[in-house]
Design a protein that fits this description.
InterPro entries: LptF (IPR030922), LptG/LptF_permease (IPR005495). By secondary structure, the chain is an alpha+beta fold. The protein is 63% helix and 16% strand. The protein has 2 domains: 272 residues, no CATH class; 94 residues. The chain starts with a helix and ends with a helix.
Amino acid sequence: MKVVERYIMRRALAVFLAALIWTLAIVWTTQVLARIDLVTDSGQSALTFFEVAALIIPSIVPIVVPFALVVAVAQTLSAMNSDSELAVLNAAGASRWTIVRPIMLLALAASVFSFAVDNGVDPYARQKNRELVASSRADLLSLIIQEGTFRKIDDGLFLQIGERLPDNRLGGIFVADSREEGVNLIYYAKSGAIIESGDERVLMMNDGVIHRKTLAGDLSVIRFTSYAFDLSAFMSASSEVLLLPKDRTTQYLLNPSANDKMFQKRPNKYLAEVHQRFSEWSYSLVFALIALAVAGDARSHREARIHPLITSIAIALFVRWLGFFAAGKADNIPQYAYMVYGVPIVASAVATWFIVSNRTMELPVAWADWMTNFAGRFGDGWSALKLRFARRGASGQGAG
């Protein structure tokens, strides 16, 4: 590899790693916030929450890597063009492949990394994540005996324990049950205990009342000396791990068990997941070609209506949306599997044609003009807003 090629790869790699870390952090944060209820609803420790959060990372890597790469390539070539480095390379007689070769090697490495994570690490991480969530929700005993807080056991079923008494007894038991349509049941008992017998767990309540109210307004109150509330059904339902096609290994997807109930109901979903995994890795190569077609020419920045980085990201987003659309449709319509592979192939072919023919890929003129006008109006509005705040600050200081 030539010195110039190593220089280009080193610059692109540095920007790629920075973009990857920041993008992963942003997407990971949004995914983690959606799972904060694991701690708030299930009463689990922070360690379990962070373990679940860490297992999310492999699932977002194959999506984030191509976008980090397109940002890195477009930004690197844009900076080189601004510093007239691309013009110097052209003047020195270097071919365009001097720029293309290191970028494509970086893209190939990113594609291999995405393929390994998508087909090797991610399925096991998803399975472990499912097991952790199921086990945390199945830990009803630790969930129930927390004092003074309402806990959701099931849809329409809430429970609160007032205090913990000696000998593993519970005091001030409150249960609200609205699972039956049109009927609301409220249980209150002065004391009770959780009785375990094998796989069965029963909440035995002592000295309490049951309030039963219907939508018609009928209210009845029943007093009881002891009442058994079965918790076994919720335990078994919560502890059962349901694995979706996304959670299965690639080897299993290629040869699923005939006894798999999910496969019996939705066999096309398994095949669609295989197609997605075998095509998703290619988007790193596709996006690198797009960035090269947009920003790889020394003339592109001076003639472009908008910044090449924005153009590259806009085109990449459109291509990736087409890929997601095809993958979503392939779950129900197997013919869309051709589109799953066709989107990256066609996008690569178009970008390669621009590179080979020494043309610059740009957004349509109407789109570019609209984005330029929008950016101009936004900039003018922001400047006016800052000026207004500056005047208010000056008038406030004068009044003081």
